[in-house]
Amino acid sequence: MIELKRLNGEIYYLNPLLIETVEARPDVVITLITGKKLVVANTLDEVLAAFQSAMRLFTPTQVAWEVFKNTRHES
What is the pTM of this model? Predict the structure, then answer.
């Protein structure tokens, strides 16, 4: 999990495997694989550093399984 800060200063935690994109425009916007967008008070560098640090804890197999599990669609 990565620690993030909402614009109101509230701290929350996000599973890094749910992140699809991170953009700075000018606020940092995180788009999840579900399509949901989160605007955070963290800088782009802070988000990327937290993401990279968290991802070191996962094996490639764990990452592949989580991505598969969170993106499969019901028929």
Answer: 0.77
Domains assigned to the chain: 2-71 (2.40.50)
Determine the 3-state secondary structure of 53 from DSSP.
helix
Contact 71, 65 (CB under 8 A): no
Residue-wise pLDDT tens digits, 7-35: 999 999 999 989 999 999 999 999 998 99
Residues 6 or more apart from 56 whose CB is under 8 A from it? none
In 1-75, beta strands by DSSP E: 2-5, 11-14, 19-24, 28-32, 37-40
